[in-house]
Design a protein that fits this description.
Blueprint: H1 10-15, H2 26-41, H3 47-53, H4 60-68, H5 74-88, E1 100-109, E2 119-120, E3 131-142, E4 145-154, H6 157-160, H7 163-170, H8 180-194, H9 198-206, H10 210-223, E5 230-233, H11 240-248, E6 252-256, E7 262-264, E8 285-287, H12 288-291, E9 301-305, E10 308-319, E11 323-331, E12 341-345, H13 352-360, H14 363-374, H15 386-408, H16 427-451, H17 456-473
Parallel strand pairs: 1-5, 5-6
Antiparallel strand pairs: 1-3, 2-3, 3-4, 6-12, 7-8, 7-10, 9-10, 10-11, 11-12
């Protein structure tokens, strides 16, 4: 049995008024506060559990309609949230030249296939293919200020176009192979014929790659008025197409680099510890993974960032399909034995320390995914329609943003552009504080009921009636 919630979480009550005009009636506004409170303080984030733990809430069907049928718009709430955050953090953020937009994607895994657009996606961490929604997100970082911006669901081409069904329709005797490489061969062979089918062609036109989604998220961040100069991204997004799109928006970038990418080393002479030239391919082109073993230990320089030491080699080179870049190869141990990371940027005048310091800020989006899933239920929805899922993700973003504002709270605000580099609290700490505050509210509520003459047993019965009813059905 869980403690009943007798009022919205203090953070929700403090900030909810800023969103009031976005909701058409008082009941919808109450559901907004109820859902946010449930996301923040309850371990089980399901609609039914939020409903039975909130003393004044209606049943779960009302919350379900709030997510899927209510006239409020998640896009409007999200846009308002961003403007609200920018206004609240005006004295805490750095200037645009020091601020970044982060782009990445995460899997929201589920069991069962009843959710709309659920599909099997590749999980890089364990090379599995779980049932999941693949969520591509953008995230803003400016000193200590860091919050999610937008998200879009990625759908695999075969899922969106119902490719296997159309293969069966036009080529009924064709077996579908299980491996990706073999299926790619079939795509090349049969897709031109499938595209002659108007129904398939219409679905084909709706397909968006992760790169297309990333560009849309970039444009949305600019339209929101977020001040930033640099985009931080994983190696997946480092393509000629996306780099060209960044250039059209006058944005710099820093990215991880895959080790099989080709570098042009023409005009660069690599020398060993004795100063003798190290032979490179005669055409001047070499893969990153082939270059690293050739670099002598004496070429690495120690870099210290936030009390951590790295050993880095930096060089300006040309990257196939991208152009002139600065490359940084970084080890975490002086003996160069640990796994290494390869960073690349079009900030060709930056030092290795500047590049590494900037890219380390990308970890912010990973901590958001962790906190969003472990503490706020980013992947714990059970709604079936995409519109309801989008409402859920929007409200998770709101909950995270309100918690983050509490992480930044300070009695003495520094001058604009000279804010903290890190929050003064973690999201987990503020979540626990909100839970403790709700326990205090519950005690005061029960005390007030006793003062009004209710018997202790009756107060207890009233507080836990909804949960007892739920248990009697189970």
């Amino acid at each position: 049995m869980q403690l009943p919630i007798v009022a919205p979480a203090p953070l929700v009550a403090c900030h909810a008024g800023a969103f009031r005009r976005l909701f058409t009636d008082e009941r919808t506004y109450e559901n907004f506060q109820t859902y946010l409170t449930g996301l923040i303080v309850l371990e089980n984030k399901s609609l039914s559990n939020i409903s039975r733990c909130t003393l004044k809430s209606a049943d779960k069907t009302n919350l379900s309609r709030f997510l899927s049928e209510s006239p409020w718009k998640s896009e409007a709430v999200n846009a308002h949230r961003i403007q609200y955050l920018l206004a609240q953090t005006v004295n805490m953020r750095l200037d645009g030249k020091q601020s970044c937009l982060l782009i990445d994607d995460t899997l929201c895994e589920h069991v069962g296939s009843v959710l709309e657009y659920i599909d099997r996606h590749y999980n890089h961490s364990d090379s599995s293919y779980p049932l999941a929604h693949n969520l591509v997100t953008s995230h803003y970082r400016s000193g200590a200020v860091q919050f999610p911006v937008d998200c879009e669901i990625y759908r695999r081409y075969e899922d969106l176009t119902q490719w296997e069904q159309f293969i069966a329709k036009h080529f009924p005797d064709q077996e579908i192979p299980p491996t990706t490489q073999a299926r790619q061969t079939l795509h090349k062979q049969f897709d031109p014929t499938l595209l002659e089918d108007p129904e398939f062609a219409k679905l084909h036109e709706q397909f968006r790659t992760k790169l297309t989604i990333a560009h849309e998220l970039l444009k949305q961040a600019i339209e929101h008025g977020l001040p930033f100069t640099t985009v931080l991204m994983d190696s997946w997004y480092l393509t000629t197409e996306f780099v060209e799109q960044l250039a059209t928006h006058n944005k710099q970038w820093v990215s991880l680099l895959k080790r099989n990418r080709n570098l042009s080393m023409q005009g660069f002479q690599l020398r060993d510890a004795q100063g003798q030239p190290i032979p490179l391919p005669t055409n001047g082109v070499i893969k990153v993974e082939d270059l690293v073993p050739l670099i002598p230990a004496t070429a690495y320089r120690q870099v210290e960032i936030d009390d951590r030491r790295y050993w880095c080699f930096s060089v300006c080179t040309r990257l196939s399909g991208i152009g002139k870049v600065r490359l940084v190869i970084s080890f975490q141990s002086a003996d160069l034995s640990a796994p290494y990371a390869v960073l690349v940027t079009n900030h060709t005048d930056w030092s290795a320390k500047q590049i590494l310091s900037k890219y380390l800020q990308r970890w912010t989006i990973e901590t958001f995914y962790r906190d969003g899933k472990q503490l706020l239920g980013l992947d714990q929805y059970r709604v079936r329609s995409l519109s309801a899922m989008q409402s859920h993700w929007c409200l998770v973003f709101v909950a995270y943003s309100l918690l983050h504002l509490a992480c930044l709270a300070s009695s003495s605000k520094p001058p604009k552009g000279k804010g903290l580099t890190h929050p003064i609290q973690t999201i987990g700490e503020v979540v626990r504080q909100q839970g403790q505050a709700l326990v205090e509210q519950l005690i005061l509520f029960a005390h007030d009921q006793l003062l009004q003459g209710q018997a202790a047993a009756q107060v207890f019965t009233n507080l836990f009636a909804k949960q007892q009813k739920q248990f009697s059905y189970s």
